Structure formats: structure tokens, C-alpha cells
Amino acid sequence: MKSLLIFLFIMSGLFLACSEEEELPINPTPIELDLKSQQLVEADNEFGLDVFQRLNAEENGNFMVSPLSISQALAMTYNGARGETKTAMEDALKVAGLTSDEINQSYQSLVKALLKADNRVTLDIAQSIWYQQNFYVEPDFISTNQIYYDAEVRELDFGRSDALDIINGWIETQTHDKIQDMIKRIDPNHVMFLINAIYFKGSWQSKFDAEKTSQKPFYVNADKTVNVDMMKKSDSVMYQHNDWFAAIEMPYGRGNFSMVVLLPNSDKTIDDVAAELTVENWDVWMKSFYSVNDLNVQFPKFKAEYEVKLNDVLSAMGMEIAFNPGADFSGIDGSGDIWIDYVQHNTFIEVNEEGTEAAAATVVAMREYAAMPTSFNANRPFIYAITEKETGAILFIGKMIQPS
């Protein structure tokens, strides 16, 4: 089970804090999950690896995602899906075979276990649902997300001048101001925002000595080298080496949470390793670590932010129907006239000699059909143009103040 949980925290950036005053135990806190919760962790791992691989094919620079944040926000949304939309979301989230109740109960059990895993860590996981004032929401949809996801549910006039600040302010508070101004605008047709926010801060079990940090070359590729602040320490670590990479585990707190670093071999690239990131391979790799004493570890300090709209990725994973007017989210409002406008995902991470601070937030924005116009009455001044459709050329353009 430990091997399954490790991935959830690396990709999500679950890097948690410990107290320096207390003596750290050697072993992490045991976590017992029921069979369905174990299946959910396996599904989340598979989902996270799939998302990572697809984004890796598109991104040339730094990026980090939180599978837990994305899946939690989508799981809340899933509770309102029906018919083909529900099936499509199950396939994309890799939870086909689990019932809605099993999914909800398993997420509830998993989050409770994570929150209790290490009292030396700072760990915040929060959900909220914001809906347009006077927009009808099915009571069962609200109660399900309150019971299983502890979601804060608020009705808000989206037309208020400060509505955007209120919702973004909630995200900023939950992520300790690491993710700001996430939602850029509220469209007139937006009726609901479902949000997950995660914040983690963790101190290394064995910290780096800041006095040993120095500028060293970092080889971006064969043609580019940059100097970075490289941290150094000699430590006993869990290590492995295979045909693809060398890897170490650097634990936080009492050891429940670790950063696992996969360093491609000199004849391999990140893309080569990423291509091997199946859940089956991951489980094997996580069982292959062994202890090495006095390993000289050099690791760069870094800080990065990332944001991505996940519509294309999730559509390619089978959820395309959810992003179109034909979607069935009648479990949310009873009408089935709403669909997902976008899924926005933002992350933050900072790594230094003390440890790691990381945050993530996911927003699922729901929209409804725009009312179809029933008339067009040009009874006031207007602008007009004569254009050629194929070329787009404007032949004439004018304004009419008073027809004669």
C-alpha cells in the first residue's frame, strides 16, 4: 500500500512539515485502507500518470500537477453526472467498476487517513462549491458533496463587482496565498464553480546545510548549461538504479511522505522515462528501493508555478462529452442544461534546504445554455459593414445614426 500512496504525493507535491523539537520516529505511521479505498488509490495513480504523460508530450518546460486535486474536484462534479456523461467521467478517472457510493466513501476514507498520517506536517485539503444566486441546485447534490468531501457550499451573486475577489480569495486562503487570481473572469453564463485546494509544507527528515549550497552547473540539454544553487549533503537514503534511471527517496516528517526523484541515465531522456510511467511499472519501482549509507546527494533549490486548462487532456482521456452542450449533469440542477466550461489547474512548489512547500487548486466551471434570441430590432443607431465571406475582406463599414 505504501508504494501506491507514494506516487499520489510526489505528483501532487504532497510535501509536508515536521516539528524540529520532537524526535522523529524511524517508521512512518501505518495506514490501513479498506479494499475499495485501495482500488481508488490505484485508480488515482493511473489517472495521474495518464495526465502527466499527456502534458509531458505538450510541455517543453517545467510543470507539476496534483492528481489528487484534479480528481477530487472532478469527483464532486461527477456526483451530478448522469447517463453517458457519468460513464465517460468514470472511464477518464479510471474508476469504472466502483459505484458512486464507493467512490465517495473511498475518497472520504483516503483524505481522513492523509490528514492523520503525520501530526508534524501542515496539511490542508479543502473543497467548495459556489453557485449563482437563484440558480436551483438539487439538494442531494449539495448534501452528498458536503457529507463526503466536506465541501463549503455558498450561493453568490456572480454579477457582484467583488464576486471574483470573493471566490479567488477563498482559493488564496486555502493555499496560504501561493495560488492567486486563479479565476480570471466570471461569464454571464457561468452558474457554478467546484473547487479543490491543497496546501502542504514539509521539512526534510535530514536537512541540507545552507552553508554547503553553492553555484553549480545544471545541464539543461546538450547545448545549454545554467548555474543554479545546488544543495549538498551526505545521507543514508533509499536508492535504486535500473536501465532507465537512478532514484532516491527523500522523506519528510516522520516518513509517511517523501519526494521521489527519478534521474534519467546518461543515455536516456525525461521523455524516455515518462514513456515507461505505467501504474504497473510504478508499483514495481516503488518496491525496488534499498538503503544506501553515506550517499553524496546534490539537489537544486527551485521554485516554480504552473497553470493549465485541462479540457483537451480530459477530452482525450474520454471526457469530451462533459465539455459540450449535450452533457447530462441533471443531477446538479435537474434540467441537464449545463455542462463543464473549463477545468483549470494551478500548482506551486518551492524546494530549499529546509524542505518543500507546495500547493494546488482545481476549478471546474459549469455553464448553462444561453437564452436563444427571439427578435432583433434595429431601432437605434448601429454599425454596419459589407464584407466578402471567403476572404473576410471588408468592402464598406459605416454607422447609421438616423435612417432617411
Please report the distance between the alpha carbons of the first and last residues.
Answer: 81 Å
What's the CATH architecture of the largest domain?
Answer: 2-Layer Sandwich
Low-confidence stretches: 1-22
Q: How many independent structural domains?
A: 2
Assigned CATH class of the largest domain: Alpha Beta
Under CATH, the homologous superfamily of the largest domain reads Antithrombin, subunit I, domain 2
Mean pLDDT: 88
Total number of beta strands: 13
Q: What is the fold named in CATH at topology level of the largest domain?
A: Antithrombin, Chain I, domain 2
Based on helices, strands and strand pairing, what is the structural class? alpha+beta
The main sheet comes to:
6 strands, mixed
* Element-level helix/strand string: HHHHHEHEHEEEEEHHEEHHEEEE
Can you list the strand order of the major beta sheet? 2-1-3-11-10-9
Shape: globular
